[in-house]
Amino acid sequence: MDPWLAWGVLGLVLVIAELLSGTFYLLVLGIAAFGAAGAAGLELAFAVQAIIACVVAAAGCYGVHAYRAGNRGQQMAPIDAGMPASFESWTDAGARLARVRYRGASWDARVEGAEALEPGATVYVLAADGNTLKVAKTRPA
Predict the structure, then answer these.
(1) Burial zone of 1 (CB within 10 Å; 0-12 exposed, 13-18 middle, 19+ buried)
(2) pTM, full prediction
(3) Which terminal CB of the chain, N or C, has fewer other CB atoms within 10 Å?
(4) Helix 3-21 crosses helix 46-70 at what angle (to 10 degrees)?
(5) Nearest alpha-carbon partner for 114 in 101, 96, 97, 88
(6) CA–CA–CA angle 33, 38, 43 (5° rounding)
């Protein structure tokens, strides 16, 4: 398989995968692979192709990261923000880790603030970080 075709197929796979993720990072990597495919089409050495791919990927990922960080205040609030949950128990009170009941299931949670909580107390979801909820005693504004 020609190097330009291999880079092009890799770029196409990354762009298609981006359609499923929606983060724009895979799109940047796909564009970097297309840049390397262009370098391969010009019959430049593989090292040059790899350098082009790395430079385009690094610049693009930095650009996406900077854009997302700069617009964090304008992004939509998480869908769970402000929803009530029921405090169940502490798993590590020192680290503010607990179990809460939310949507009919028990979740790991990181409790924000220094308030003391008793089982059955109502807490409010601030955000979801993977499988861990960030919760607080007061409802977010």
Answers:
(1) exposed
(2) 0.58
(3) C
(4) 20
(5) 96
(6) 120
CA distance 74 to 99: 31
Residue for token pair 């402000």: 82
The full DSSP string for 39-96 is HHHTT--HHHHHHHHHHHHHHHHHHHHHHHHHTGGGSPPPTTTT-EEEEEEEEETTTT
132-136 and 105-111 strand pairing: parallel
**Orientation angle between helical segments 25-41 and 3-21, nearest 10 degrees:** 170
CA atoms of 97 and 108, how far apart (whole Å): 7
C-alpha 136: how far from its chain's center? 22
pLDDT (tens, 9 = 90+) of the chain, 141 residues, equals 899 999 999 999 999 999 988 889 999 999 999 999 999 999 999 999 999 999 999 999 999 999 988 887 676 667 788 899 999 999 988 899 999 999 999 999 999 988 888 899 999 999 888 889 999 998 877
Distances in Å between the alpha carbon of 83 and those of 14, 102, 139?
Answer: 36, 9, 8
Distance of CA 20 to the CA centre of its chain: 13
